[in-house]
Amino acid sequence: MRFYSMLPMNKLSAVIITLNEERNIGRCLESLVDVADEVVVVDACSTDGTRAICERYGVRCDRHAWEGYIASKNYANTLASNDLILSIDADEALSPELAASIRQLKAQEVTGKAFSMNRRMNYCGQWIRHGGWYPDTKIRIFDRRTVQWTGKKVHETLALPEGTRIEHLQGDLLHYSFYTREEHRRQMEQFATLSAQEMAEAGKRPGRLTAWVHTGWRFLRDYVFKAGFLDGSKGFDICRDNAYGVWYKYLKARELQ
Q1: How far apart are CA 79 and CA 66, in angstroms?
Q2: Residue 206: is the preceding peptide bond cis (ω within 30°)?
Q3: What pLDDT was estimated at residue 6?
Q4: Of 34, 77, 173, 192, which has the fewest Cβ atoms less than 10 A away?
């Protein structure tokens, strides 16, 4: 399948990193058909049907050993033919409104700009709008010549040049985050372990009281002050498991000491 091409001022490369994403990647690629002039997938040696699905869509799929989120995303950007990058995860997709916004920006002047969008999470089949999970604004379109991914082991961020203008796009980036609660808990444990390693490397030695205070505050903040209770039983599960992730982080940090 050929991706959308016209005569815009700017051409856009969509960049994706993958590892065993056969249940998600097709939906992601389908949402890009009328938006991206090029799609680059860097696959960390998937053992499922991810690469076969990419081949059916005719996108470039580069096999590359996993180096972590930051290094993998920066490497993927170097493979793009265009400097204007849309960074999107395999379990995300563009809403029709967001796709239309991106098509419009391609005909605009983008020098010195980066573009943000709201991300809407789908948890076990339900769209979540509270508890800190929405609007979850992300900057995902940028010029790779001046912007790179940076950060630590968890939650990579974009390093923007001073004076960069952020323009917010209409429409949502749809994130099909977790199909089961068990998947959410596993990810919490994975990210908590990485965060604990960062704490250990920084020489931080959290006490038991610190762990309980931060855990309790995380649940109270998300469930009460950020209205997670408005998402019903799913909202309660999310807030509880997010708090569990905080507790698990401090547990692992103490073990590493």
Answers
A1: 16
A2: no
A3: 47
A4: 34
Q: How far apart are CA 204 and CA 214, in angstroms?
A: 15
Identify the CA nearest to 99 among candidates 80, 86, 114: 86
CB 169 within 8 A of CB 101: yes
Place of tokens 């030695």: 205
Q: Can you state the percent helix, strand and coil of the chain, rounding each to 5?
A: 40, 25, 35
Domains of the chain and CATH, by start: 12-178 (3.90.550.10), 181-256 (no CATH)
Tokens representing 113 are 């700009």
E strand map for the chain: 12-18, 38-43, 60-63, 84-87, 92-94, 113-123, 126-128, 138-143, 148-150, 157-159, 165-178
Neighbours of 198 (CB within 10 A): 14
Output the CA–CA distances (angstroms, integers) from residue 109 to 38, 106, 166, 178, 242, in the order listed.
20, 8, 13, 37, 40
The span from the CA of 61 to the CA of 10, in Å, is 23
Spans in the chain with pLDDT lower than 50: 5-8
Question: What's the pTM value of the predicted model, to 2 decimals?
Answer: 0.88
pLDDT digits (tens, 9 = 90+) for 66-96: 998 899 999 999 999 999 999 999 999 999 9
Query: What is residue 2's predicted lDDT score, i.e. its pLDDT?
Result: 53
Structure tokens at 8: 């815009």
Residue at 59: amino acid letter: V
By CB atoms closer than 10 A (0-12, 13-18, 19+), residue 171 is middle
